[in-house]
# Entry
Amino acid sequence: MVVAAAREIRDGDVVFVGMRLPLIAFRLAKMTHAPRAFGVFENGLVRGTPSAEFLYTMSDTPNVVGAHMCTRLSLAMSLLGRGRIDLGFIGGAEVDRFGNMILTRLPVLQAFRHLLPWPADPEVPSMQRVAVEVVLQAPWGPLRVTTTHLEYYSARQRAAQVERLRELQAEAAAHAQDVRHSRKEGGPFENAARPASGILTADFNFRPDDPLYARLQAPFVDATPRYVDGWEIMHPGAPHAPTLGVFDREQWPEPFACDFIFVTEDLVCRVREVLVNSDTDASDHQPVLLSLD
# Structure
């Protein structure tokens, strides 16, 4: 794992370095193929060379001595938010088997974790759900990608969560109109990209004939671009390929679709392919692939 991480660091990269294995990977890269890489540590330190002594924490004296900069955590985070970091490695502090994750090769400009509504519904089991949103630097400009997993048992909670996803789209569209202020530049209030253009993907726990499927795609009262199902763009009028129960017939005697990829309507012209991989049985759900130009 250390060797694989070190290979990702290129000579001259600015690297966000976490503790333990990421720190070792940074040192290995510096000693081998990336001697000009710079490390930005989560506590605000910037170093061109790893500490020569063992570290228990990022703020240990050996890590401070010889640092190029000793600044604040907020500066390190703002560098991440403004896309000034080439790549980053942090240690795994928590593993959540129900968690959401976005993996990308594109630069990440911003990241958000939104708690979704969880209104009481004591008649059924339920859990708190979240939506993870990142702003990526796509070849044509900033692009939001959001993923989530809506409630399974509670229709009341699922409906509330769909409304919140619509609110987040409207919120992002409003933020896209933010004007630049000279007093914000270079500090924590500096505007970072959060565009209206976005992709939304999830196990939505509803089928195409569910009213929530149509509600999620309903137009907004203003100019906010609405979501459109990528499958309908490429396969208009065709039934959705099933994404659940293809192999697991014990739980799901009849396969159906509940995993969708929606794009905002301004991205419709960029959609080139939407496929469901029906061959793999690695999960009870089938992977869905979206290709954009």
Observations:
- The chain has two domains: 2-89, 108-292.
- The two ends are 33 Å apart (CA to CA).
- Residues 2-89 form one domain.
- The first helix runs from residue 2 to 7.
